[in-house]
Amino acid sequence: MRRVALVVAVGLLLAGCGNVVRQADRADEQVRAAVETMAKSSFSYHHTAAGDEYDGLVHRPSKSTTLRLSTREGAVTTETVLIGDRGWVRTNADLTAVGDAPPLDEISPWSEVTAETLSEPPFRYVAGADALVGAELFSSVSGLHETAPLTYAGTIDLTANMYLNATNGAAAPKELDQARAVPMTVTLDDRGHITRVTIDVPAAPTKSEFSDFDAVTAPTAPKS
Question: Superkingdom of this entry's organism (predicted)?
């Protein structure tokens, strides 16, 4: 009887392990599928990192992306518009609240960015909000498992690419080993879109939120 009981116990244990593996595989498949869905969808986004804020939209039919980056004190705002293979950028500097700097509130004119520059970091990760929700970002994610309906936790290797997730360097962990396995959470909606990504960078967690799926208006080219 003891031998039978042992065999049954081992069988149950192995069955349980198999179930855990299947659940992990399913979680990974769900999130990877959501990344592919985002690559085909238009949306607006809001991202916070180290006190800075990133706002913009992605419009797939026109191959357009916008980004508005505001620094922690709101002293500098940079705007970027990408449409097809063209791009424009401008900066607004307001230093009146920074130390003893003289008053300055100046909006620079739009400047067109060369195609060569657009193909290099960081611009190449602005397009499609790839830095926040692209396949390259999620290629360094592992250990995904479901913690609640449509909510998945895992870890991400932030050393894979410094431009991904817009941590701005200062927010990245100092220890490389720690940076290779930073806890993260991904939330989906019932249509398979990613609605939120949080990454628990020590002392400076980042959060990305996505909404207005396939309901954003295509941006127009700025006058430079």
Answer: Bacteria
